[in-house]
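Let us practice reading a record.
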Amino acid sequence: MKKLSEPCGKILTMKILFTKLLNQEQVAEKLGMEVAIDFVEVIKTNFIKTKNFGLKNYSLIFTSVNGVKAFFENGFEANENFAEKNYNKIYAVGSQTKKELRKHNFGTFKLCKNASELSQFITENSVNEKFLHFCGDLALDVLDEKLPLQNISYKKIPVYKTELLFPKINEKYQAVVFFSPSGVRSFAKFNGLDDLKIFSIGKTTTSELKKLTENKIITSHKNTLADLLNLISKEISTAGKADLED
């Protein structure tokens, strides 16, 4: 676990655990010096060696940064030249996934906030396309369950494995921040969620949390780290005001 030292001489309004390693300075700058911040990895990913094959006539789906990285690591080649007949349309979930595609000089035909939104878009606008989804072995079945029901050609291509690390946290925190459904399952195996403020990166992660707790879950509806940090900052400010009133 990576720890950020508690600010000296400051009254702490909240002690927060992030279930992902992030840039400590960036987070501390956004949340202020009245907060103690720790980071713990709850999942680990490893690329799967996958023999590349031709992608002609397929539309490509990426729902994670790791899916993009593993796609190119395995030597797949997409054709995004719209002037050519058999180019590959690229659909992405999440702004970070889009950014990773841009690093490889690929744009995005459609960007959605989560898999449910993407599923709805495809069933309403792209029913005649054939889809390949480059994802992890624990990817949720949202697309797999919905697209075939509409007779849409869809296939998962697992290109990385997700290992749940199941950490046991002995320290006490007022809040925990989650970034994926698999991260929720990993954390919850040996750690309770009672009496915690819970923050979630998005709707899909929140759905997993609701299976485990009735606590209020503060969710980013933009599915971005920047928005999530804004929500946490507002909650810290609210908690600080409440303490002053008491």
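A brief commentary: The chain has eight helices and twelve strands.
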